[in-house]
């Protein structure tokens, strides 16, 4: 359903195919800001809590939060989402090129957070992280360096999504007081719960050390991280029948619905 003609090629397509549970954290992040307009919209009042019915308004709200209110009024909308992601990258001191694609800039942000978190983890915690991820890619106890995990992340696919979800889940715990609603996939729910300790505490330390001088960053930083996770989810392996995220390419049957995977 379209509630506004305002559209961003790097944001709307991701939100408009997400389910209501995936959109809920974005709604909660936005609602935390006094100047938000989402909850006063007719679509929200009539269709809450089915966030899929006003995904375009959520996208518009995120963009509005990333811009100056006066400038937003003059141009009729908030800044492009690409610009917002660049602002977040600068705030988190992530090395990036603003001329690169949105995916690459999001990855630069996630890598910066991941590197700092991994640097705070012991070798034992890294081994546990690798174990819970499935010890794939030929990595063993000797492949627990930060560089090894970054290589897994850069490879893309399910494991990149795994690491991104861990970060997004911990950000939600810190800001919203609870993790993401990931119970639909039993495997993901299991390892995300296990990993909250080692990598969670590291991310918490990073977050509290960030100087959020501008109140808008309290919304845009978690939103950008969550949208990056949703984009990773779209690119990860999934069951065409039920949509469940699959652990790897060796799975012959979906662990959720039993559908046979194509070979």
From TrEMBL:
Residues 52-222 form the Ubiquinol-cytochrome c chaperone domain. Gene3D superfamilies: Nin one binding (NOB1), Zn-ribbon-like (6.20.210.10). Belongs to the UPF0174 family. This is Ubiquinol-cytochrome c chaperone domain-containing protein. It comes from Undibacterium amnicola.
């Amino acid at each position: 359903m379209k509630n506004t003609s305002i559209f961003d090629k790097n944001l709307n397509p991701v939100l408009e195919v997400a389910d209501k549970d995936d959109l809920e954290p974005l709604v909660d992040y936005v609602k935390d800001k006094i100047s938000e307009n989402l909850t006063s919209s007719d679509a929200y009042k009539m269709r809450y809590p089915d966030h899929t019915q006003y995904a375009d308004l959520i996208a518009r709200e995120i963009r509005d939060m990333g811009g100056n209110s006066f400038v937003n009024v003059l141009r009729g909308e908030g800044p492009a989402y690409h610009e917002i992601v660049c602002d977040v990258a600068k705030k988190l001191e992530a090395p990036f090129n603003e001329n690169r694609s949105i995916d690459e800039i999001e990855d630069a942000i996630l890598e910066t957070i991941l590197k700092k978190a991994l640097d705070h983890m012991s070798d034992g915690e890294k081994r546990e992280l690798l174990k819970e991820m499935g010890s794939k890619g030929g990595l063993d106890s000797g492949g627990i360096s930060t560089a090894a995990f970054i290589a897994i992340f850069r490879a893309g696919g399910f494991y990149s999504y795994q690491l991104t979800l861990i970060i997004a889940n911990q950000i939600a715990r810190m800001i919203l007081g609870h993790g993401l609603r990931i119970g639909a996939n039993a495997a993901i729910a299991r390892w995300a719960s296990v990993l909250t300790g080692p990598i969670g505490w590291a991310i918490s330390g990073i977050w509290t050390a960030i100087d959020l001088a501008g109140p808008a960053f309290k919304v845009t930083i978690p939103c950008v991280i969550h949208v990056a996770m949703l984009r990773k989810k779209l690119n990860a392996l999934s069951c065409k029948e039920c949509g469940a995220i699959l652990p790897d390419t060796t799975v012959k049957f979906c662990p959720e619905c039993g559908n046979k995977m194509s070979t």
